[in-house]
Structure prediction request, 988 residues.
Amino acid sequence: MSKKLSLSRRTLLRGAGALMALPLLERMVPGTARAAEALPTARRLAVFYVPNGIHMQKWTPTGTGATWELTPSLQPLAPVKSDVLVISGLANDSGRPDGDGHHAAGTAALLSCTKAFKTEGTDFHAGISMDQVIANHLAQQKATRYPSLELGNDAGRGIGNCDSGYACPYANNISWAGPRTPMAKEARPKAVFDRLFAGVDPGTTQAQIEKRRAYGLSIIDFVREDATTLQKQLGATDRRKLDEYFTSVRDLEKQMEALGQQGPTCGSQVSPSEDEDPRTKTKAMMDLIVLAFQCDLTRVATFMLANARSNKVYGFLGLSGGHHAYSHHQYVQSNYDALARIDRWEVEQYAYLVRRLKESQDGPGASLLDSSLVYFTSEVEDGNAHIHRNLPVLLAGKGGGAVGTDRHLRAPGMPIANLYISMMRAMGVPNVTTFGADGTGELAGFGG
Amino acid sequence: MLLLAGCKGDSLPKARVLPDQDNPHTQNDECENVSGDPGRVTLHRLNRAEYDATVRDLLGDTTRPARDFPTDDHGYGFDNNADVLSLSPLLLEKYATAAEKLVETAWAQGQLRTCALDAINPEPCARDIVSRFARRAWRRPVTSEEVDRLLRALTLAKQQGDTPEAGVKLALRTVLVSPHFLFRVEKDPEPTSATPRRLDDFELASRLSYFLWSSMPDEPLLQAAEQGKLRTPAELEAQMHRMLADPKAQALVSNFAGQWLFTRALDSAEPDPALYGAFNEKLREAMRQETELVFQEFITGDHKLRDLIDAPFTFVNDALATHYGLPPPGSGTPRRVDLSGHPERQGIFGHGSLLTVTSNSDRTSPVQRGVWVLEQLLCSAPPPPPPNVEGLPPPVNPHMTMKERMALHRSLPQCQGCHRMMDPLGLSLENYDPIGRWRLNEVSGAPVDATGDLPDGTVLNGSVDMRRFIKEDPKLPSCFTEHLLTYALGRGMAEADHCAVREIAATAEASGGRLSDYILAIVLSDHFTSRRGDPEAQSP
Prediction:
């Protein structure tokens, strides 16, 4: 059924021509009332990470449950309020570093709930992140061409320390395929676009696809043989590096095998610009996530608005200091004000993604947002004290009916890993009962 | 860091050189009986700069395909750290895509076709093309078995109804996705043996070329390896001088110096346009060029390395000269200018690049500047601040000087230990504003106070004084060695490397103390020419 629906979606999109301009379809039936079998079975996850925490005084709604109001920093969510669940009080104790290094440790633990081992060298390791657990599950079903997309605005400064003796991979990656395998992210929208859409000629014949696959697989066979021979002549540390190569070869193989199984294109799109302005760039990244979901090229995407401990200067918000510098607010009002401005801008970008998904159709009478989980969080709560509890958490979308939205859920002290267990289950991963260091079961109140 | 330190008295910078203390020439006792452990470098994936330079030299491709690859992480200050250079599925996909494009382009240009492929019997020519290419791409001789395996692509192409040409191209693509191309392979014949072994000739050739060029060995270097010549120090030295004189040694400027001197961070520097509107893209470029050209001159020139601290020359164009208050050289491109009459601009502390990247967008940061000096020049990095105290609060009254604000800030007892090291070094540079202009007054109008009081009571009076002090510090040679060796090997230095670092520094200083002396001392060291197995490795 899923396949049929996605085909019809593609047909519809071709007819529509410009994908970016799909009309907003009225929802026919309110989410909870809709019969489950009428929903498409595909589930999607988008993660939106922001660095340096949030100024919570202007963030946390006062009400609880269904009686909640948008706070100043959450105001940009007004058009999609009914699709949002705000969760307060969640803790990620695995994000606490040994000594200093809260941003790197918090970011490595963000989606893995695993404590990062403090090192700058060979032995860096954290844990698999929940988005990758989901991606692995979907890959088994050969659901999409790409198991997941990893995106981010920051390419990194490339000098000095990343964070207090923590290796840079910790600070620059929220997505981890395994303890030692950070999923490198793409920082150029155009490169993402080219990867997804360029070089795919809609006129390609089945025979040409077959040949392409045969050649691609022959390369894979050869290099795997190379690596297998090489493995025997290497020490243990080197073999671990080569394991990354084997894993990647397997993934590439799956991609090759899937070549031609899906329609190579889903309409005409315009390649994004190379503009480095964070406003343009963030929007381009959000559009790419929506497009990849629409075309069913992937169902899992993570996005880092900036790397951990980013000291980005948001000049267009009228600010002259860096984000990280402001986050060490020292209880000074002018720093609070600057943080609130940045927070609100961040929520605006997130709201844009949510809105775009809501405007995108996913089968008859349903939007992409209905089938998605759109998750917003940061590696710390307060950037001054580096608190890893009461983290800022937003979840938009119904996840196919699993999430009870338009609420403010309070879950003081509950492990954020439990939220992830609920999210993984909503995404169809079977039998998840524990996760990370402290996930013990589903988060109470997740479904409403 | 070798001297990763709490901020205790013994790791403080010293105002005077005390005899027989911290001096690599005289203090050898603890290293006397240490048998050299060269350590081991983790299987090293080519980073983006290395990939681009390698395909440039292998295929003549200057399109820099690695720009489309995900960013490399860095460790110990450099993005060629093998431990953190991981290989994600995304990256392998990019490698495969790039390989196809690179081979197609080079093939179309005719560079790879050294013979004509006969339609009936293509194998001899195919073998020739593929084996030549694989030898260069894999940076070592290839066996006939390896070539046989690669030539299976011809059979596949035939089965698919394609030409032999398609088969050869497929084989070449395969070469570029193989681990032998993507990694710098150094085999361990006895993977768990702790006994050091000398690298084979080709492994050594690659170490040398990736150190000096960030690229593959060229034909003369490969041939020297084939002839076994690299086993003599004289040949290694001759190769090193030949390679440093080659334009490809520019890689040492952009990749080593760019990260050691933080010049790379200029890309992301964002001075507040309201306060520092004089900063613009042309100035950004001129600042980068200044530091690169000065360092370039140190690679081939006859200057002592420590003269970087107060070199009496620099490279400026008119815009940068005006920015600095120097007479314009009458050129839009950088010109070498003499600084004998401008002591305030001598050496790297007069460079706009360094002064800008160690500043906040809206003010100078004596702490960042001080930490830079301690980390990059003296390897005496202070630990990070304890939680909840980071950051400088706004001035209590608007006319306070930076020095007064910082004195207030570090009145907390837990801050004093480290700040009394960092602050005086940074404060002595207060005459340079956040974009490197000379100033006598702060933005508030308060007169600049560029004096720094060191813990031992010495007062540094401005940048000239500070320079003199740093230049004399006995930790400078070993610290420079530590950074250069970290880069040369692509691995972080640990306590076990302490003696080797000291020995290399002493050798380099004894032979003249030029950058080329340091490079040679590294190239001839056991750390560079040997490796050992991995006896204690276990999965945590």
